[in-house]
């Protein structure tokens, strides 16, 4: 299957979910231009980790994206595991120091407070 058809499948599903290129890029940790190149078919070498990540965000089977399956097989969002968080925050580091953990907690509190402020409420969580 050509990259153009893969891109069409990505675009079709992204739009069906009401997502933007920015949404997908932020979720998988790549530049918006990378997602755009995948979607337009202007990518020379498809990278399996990127395809898998895009499929995860779109809740579809990666095999469908690349044409190895005819059915989209919509999946439920996977439960985030501790290993997922370690990889996302620290590149898979097995050793998370107390300082690293506290920094993540401070950042999470900041994000929660900012979102609550936008909504006009308060957050009572520690």
Describe this structure in words.
This protein is mainly alpha-helical. It folds into two domains: 3-65, 434 Repressor (Amino-terminal Domain); 82-119. The protein has seven helices and no strands. The longest helix is centred in the last third of the chain and has 22 residues, at 98-119. The chain starts with a helix and ends in a 7-residue tail after the last helix. The model has no long low-confidence stretch (mean pLDDT 81).
Compact summary:
The chain is mostly helical and 126 residues long.
Total number of helical segments?
Answer: 7
Uncertain parts: none
User: What average pLDDT do the residues reach?
Assistant: 81
First-residue to last-residue Cα separation: 50 Å
Taking all Cα atoms into account, the compactness measure Rg is 17 Å
Structural class by secondary-structure content: mainly alpha
Number of domains: 2
CATH architecture label of the largest domain: Orthogonal Bundle
Which key phrases capture this entry?
mainly alpha, 434 Repressor (Amino-terminal Domain), single chain, 126 residues
Summarize the SSE layout with pairings.
Elements: H1 3-16, H2 21-28, H3 32-40, H4 48-58, H5 62-65, H6 82-90, H7 98-119
Helix pairs in contact: 1-3, 2-3
């Amino acid at each position: 299957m050509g990259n153009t058809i893969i891109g069409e499948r990505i675009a079709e599903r992204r739009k069906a979910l009401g997502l933007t290129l920015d949404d997908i890029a932020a979720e998988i940790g790549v530049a918006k231009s990378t997602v755009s190149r995948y979607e337009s078919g202007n990518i020379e070498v498809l990278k399996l980790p990127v395809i898998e990540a895009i499929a995860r965000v779109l809740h579809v089977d990666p095999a469908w994206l690349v044409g190895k399956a005819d059915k989209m097989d919509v999946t439920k969002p996977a439960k985030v595991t501790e290993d997922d968080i370690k990889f996302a925050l620290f590149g898979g580091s097995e050793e998370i120091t107390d300082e690293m953990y506290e920094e993540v907690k401070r950042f999470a509190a900041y994000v929660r407070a900012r979102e609550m402020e936008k909504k006009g409420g308060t957050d009572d969580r520690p």
